[in-house]
Amino acid sequence: MRLATYNVEWFANLFDDEDRLFEDGGWSARWDVTRAQQTQALGHVFRRMDADAVMVIEAPDAGRRHNGVVALERFADRFDLRARKAVIGFANDTQQEIALLYDPDRLSAVHDPQSAPDAPQFDGTLLMDLDVDATRDTVIFSKPPLELAIEAASGFRFRMIGTHLKSKAPHGARTDAEAMKISIANRRKQLAQAIWLRRRLDAMGDTPVMVLGDLNDGPGLDTFEDLFGRSSVEIILGEGQGALFDPHAARALSSRRGAVPTTARFWIRTEKRFLQALLDYIMVSPQFRTRAPRWRIWHPLDDPDCWRDAGLRDALVTASDHFPVTLDFDA
How many domains does one find in the chain? Predict the structure, then answer.
């Protein structure tokens, strides 16, 4: 079985008000890329991945005016994808949903939010003292994780949690000091969300589970690591018998500020260069370690097979500022 996580930059902008693909010469939200070019590139990447299920981060909008499930299934039909059924959990107001696009012949997927005494379901609120002032603060997810019950055609049952953690930019800051204060407060909230997710994982006990998505955080990523001691990645991975594993995270944690794998590539306009970062993960519980797991980052410049295939290489660069991560395992 092949599972994937893929952050598609502003996927929602490729669909009109009727949830139909534009696929025209209008500009997408990607720099100097038309909607048709991004759509075609995404179709190429999804077909080449040929995954049984893809956790789509920044999926098309879902809510009163749009139907993200319809949009994704129309995309799948347009490119004749095996992964042709979609499921979305709690919609949010950011136009960046978390959704699973999957092959119904290979697995079933049901949105199945759960809660624990110290970890409410992900559309709720968590009370936690964020700044050690003896007052509990309210923590919410701007993008509630997607918790799914999965059953493979073989009968293997496990759970998936799609997540997109994000520390907001210091909007409204008028001075550097204000920007730093707001940034620290926002990072505290992100770490609180990671703790919330880790508590939910702990409550699952021996249930096989994987966490897929964009954590926007990791070892050596920014200056807040020394201040807080641990990144969101380390909190979610956990420790001991219930710890999750991702080889790219393990390598990054062992080398810290040395060379690490990367899953995203951003253009820094003021510096006229690209910044690469490890942001996307597929973390698995111990039960998957016995199923011959094989991870791959579909990086067009770092993966030799992607580099040699000019069509795939160009499509990966055009489709998004993130690259897919896949996990193959014996289901």
Answer: 1
